[in-house]
Amino acid sequence: MTAARPYLPQLRTSFADARYPGGRQRQLAVWWNEIDRTLLVLVLLVMAIGIVAVGAASPSSARRLSKTDVKLEDLYFLWLHLRFMALGLLVMFATAMVPQNLMRRGCILLAAAMLVALLLVPIVGGEVNGARRWLNVGISFQPSEFLKPAFAVTVAWMLAWRVRDPSLPVISLSAATVGLIVALLMLQPNLGDAILFAGAWFVLVMVAGLQLQRIGILAACSTAALTLAYLFYDNARHRIDSFIGGGTAYDQVDLASRTLLGGGWTGSGFWMGTNKMSLPEAHTDYIFSVIGEEFGLLICALVVMLYLAIVMRVLMRMMNEENLFIVLATAGLIALFGGQAFINIMVNLQLFPSKGMTLPLISYGGSSYVAQCFVVGLLLTITRRNPCLEREKFDWRAAFEKDSVL
Amino acid sequence: MNTLAAHRAVPSGRIRLVDVRRSLLMTARLRVLLVCMVFFFLAIAAMLRIGWLGFVQPAPQQRSMAEALLPPRGEITDRNGVPLARAFPAYALWYNPRAMDDGGAPLVKSPREVAARLARIFPDLDETAVRDQLAAGKPGYIRHRLLPEEANRVNAIGELALETTQESDRHYPQGMLAAHVLGYMEEGRAYVGMEQALDTRLRDPAQRGQPVVLSLDARVQGALEDELRRGMLSVDALGAAGIVLDVDTGEVMALASLPEFDPNKLDAEGRRNVFNKVTNQVYELGSTFKPLTVAAAIDAGTVTDLSRRWPANRPLVMGKFRIRDSHTIGASLNVPETLMHSSNIVTAQIADELGAARLKQVMADLGMNERPYIELPARGYPIWDKGEWPRLKAMTVSYGHGVAITPLHLASAYAAMVNGGVWRPTTLMKLEPGAAPEGRRVFKQSTSARMNQLLRMIAKYGTGRNADAPGFRIGGKTGSAEKPGGSAGYRRTTLVSTFAAAFPMDKPRFVVIIMLDEPKGTMASSFQRTAAYNAAPIVAKLVPRIGPMLGVLPDDTRDIDLTDLDPLVGKGR
Predict the structure, then answer these.
(1) Do residue A345 and residue B65 have CB atoms under 8 angstroms apart?
(2) Where does the sequence pass through the membrane (chain A) (predicted)?
């Protein structure tokens, strides 16, 4: 876009000024026109549901975690959540403001940094609940949380090299990267995140055009890997056993099921739930069940629809995107976001063995909440496009005539 | 990588790259579509699962806001808002041998030790029985109505198999007060009393936030039970019944049946006493019927002259049957004397003159041919001869034999007699001012006024003298009926003694019925068994207690005007 520009004598032109002439206000107006506002509204809606849901679950967890000497007030987690939310919104909008090029470079650097941090975790990490996942630098955070989005963007960037040179073995390279990460995660142990990374990578290479037959091989391999995990990985075995065997009365899964069904279709009413009080991790992993008890299964269905709407909205916009990197990065990011959301929902609905995975943007905050906001920020900036440009419509018929690609 | 195979023929690099880009993009879009579909199916699966959970799974109990906020069962209060029954959140101790769920022994410690520790918490626990229950390993309740502190101590034993589950219990804060009116709850079900009668209303989420207000006055009820119990014990009676009824509205101010039971803790002994003598037991109530007969005769016009004298010195012979008095009162008696001295012979003659049909009609109008009108589920069927009454039947009914009714029937009939002649159904629900039912007219107003004079004369000069509390202008009639049974048809020494009273007679407000079942002659009753010596004194003690609460203050300067009748009985000359 700069090629045909006449020379304009300017003393100091920053990068941003060059892109958006007319000052900050104009710059903001352009940004506002370029971002996907529907996505933004959907995301804010989910976050609003999150405030209410954490408010509902907070008394349960606060009472559970209170000790005789330290008594947490009922809404302790709600206030904390609101603070994390403020931080998350800041991160989200700041990320959404960053230009795409800068974002890509930043993500690659972040991925490198987080990979190093992940390497450090087994050595200097802090242990919580028998898993070494946390790194303490002033504030404690899980490197894997921030690695996830950065990883998706970086792998997308690697896979997009093929546009320049089709002969590069990008898939093998990316496979090596994800293999390293998964191995590091299994050391922690963190099976949930490992599955999420592998899944996101799988979506990425699939979108990048991996052949169907290789996809089949990959699927078979992942089944085998899961079986191995089942056989040699105690934590996973326990969870899968209790999922298949039905578990015992009053175990976590049973309590969650009681909570989910406690309110029937219309719910018992805000703060009227009683089953949630005996549910561990009510404000994080099982917040969907708390929503079920207090607001009813109908609202649960609404939450499912909202997540589906976000995923659909993002992916459908990719149907006429012309930049392969953008398509790949978006698919990777939304696979992380949607994957985590649906795994959590499936766990709560007892369709999936329990994992330590939060419901993105609804569960109580912490570094993972900020990381999810970061993901949304990345999605917002990556899907930015000039609304005045006509795009080539996706030609459904042409697409299916060339059935060889699918 | 291999998707590019088709494009190998393209000659030069740059064009080829454009082609590669297009092809990669096309593939990417289709694969994105595939990802879309995967998420779509995931969402469908989640929705189906939600639907399945909602419709099929352990039928989700619909819980409403009301369920959580309102008491599980409505409160019952007396007419002044004093709580009589309320919801009480308590714990139950349930033995769940499978709580540990490990296939091993249900308890960690030995049953003996656990039973001993439970007995330390509950000193009245049957330790042996509990030990056997624990050892047998059968699930079941060990105890109900645990206090929160007791539940904590049970949990501190540390046995998973001892589960303390919350249950909503019923608490009757006034103890045994009005137990027969209230009824009781057992295992979540309501039995007898208003608990059963109002069960739907008390459980209805739309209404149970508001307490049910009964017509009872807890203070009056307390006084009635207190005096009734004292009277019953002093004459060693089998039981006793009492009612205080508002004559103008039909509201029951107090209703007691003794011996009572404790609805908070129903034991074997209490279970025997659940039967309500006031509304369910029918008695031949004897001489208390005489004023009703006289009222019917005055109303019908067969008695126009109260000074007319009837022969009374010789038993009335009707075929094989002889109607006699307890002792010869006099050669002849006029109407006031008949009532004052309670003469069967004269009352029978008055009834005979009135005619069986008309007497029967009045008794039916007073509601004696059907079950009493009250909300309670336990209401006795009167023994009532539906066919045409022969002469003898009318004669025996006139002094209270041959028709068996509940004390509540009698209270209702007396209310109609003294309130100006209007019969109204009785109720246990508080009525708003002006909401009293219209009722039906049984007696003329003039008849009622005359009866008020006669009733007052009985209490002032006659057999009811022991009931005449100073200043309360009590009127009333004794009744000492022989109970059916024995070889002669009636047992002459086994009595049901009743006193049916109203006060104040110058403007009757309340009817009081006191009934004692099989009183004995004791020192307290001067070794007499008749109502004048056991039931009447109870009224004399009760009315001064309840009168001021009900707005009737003692006043020596007021009374019903008896000056026109006094000369007939040799008074006031």
Answers:
(1) no
(2) 38-56, 76-95, 107-126, 170-188, 194-210, 215-233, 286-312, 324-349, 361-383
What are B115-170's pLDDT values in tens digits? Answer: 999 999 998 888 899 999 888 888 888 888 888 888 889 988 888 888 888 777 78
Distance (Å, rounded) from C-alpha B292 to C-alpha B475?
A: 14
Q: Which residues of A touch B96 (CB under 8 A)?
A: none
Domain-located, residue A390: no
Task: Please name the member of B28, B42, B62 whose beta carbon is closest to the beta carbon of A324.
Answer: B28
Q: Which band of pLDDT confidence, cut at 50, 70 and 90, is reported for residue A10? A: low
Active-site residues of B, by number, are 287
Nearest by Cα to A335 from A154, A181, A173, A197: A197
Helices (H) and strands (E) in chain A, counts: 16, 3
Residues B277 and B392 in one domain: yes
Contact B43 A394 (CB under 8 A): no
The answer to whether A268 contacts B40, with C-beta atoms less than 8 Å apart, is: no
Residues B203 and B228 reside in one and the same domain: no
Neighboring chain B residues of A321 at a CB cutoff of 8 Å = 25
> In chain B, what residues touch A360 (CB-CB under 8 Å)?
none
- Contact call for A349 and B68, based on CB within 8 A: no
Q: Which of B163, B179, B213 is the last residue of a domain?
A: B213
Q: How far is B53 from chain A (nearest CA, A)?
A: 7
What is the rounded CA–CA span in Å between residue B392 and residue B356? 9
Structural domain boundaries enclosing B567:
222-572
DSSP B501: E
User: What distances in angstroms separate CA A394 from CA A45, A91, A379, A391, B478, one per listed residue?
Assistant: 29, 33, 21, 9, 105
Phi-psi region of B331 (alpha: psi -120 to 50; beta: other; left: phi over 0): alpha
Say yes or no for a CB contact (<8 Å) between A327 and B25: yes
Last residue of a domain, one of B213, B236, B251: B213
Q: B interface mutation test: which of A319, A359, A397 has the most B CBs within 10 A?
A: A319
* Cα A316 from Cα A335, distance rounded (Å): 14
> How far does Cα A293 stand from its chain's mean position?
25
CATH of residue B320's domain is 3.40.710.10
Question: Is the ipTM of this structure higher than 0.95?
Answer: no
A110–chain B nearest CA distance, Å: 26
B198 and B90 within one domain: yes
pLDDT tens, B380-407?
A: 899 998 889 999 899 999 998 889 999 9
Domains held by chain A: number:
1
pLDDT digits (tens, 9 = 90+) for A357-369: 889 999 987 888 9
Domain membership flag for residue B14: no
- The verdict on a CB contact (< 8 Å) between A335 and B26 is no
What's residue B1's pLDDT?
A: 46
Q: Are residues B395 and B286 in the same domain?
A: yes
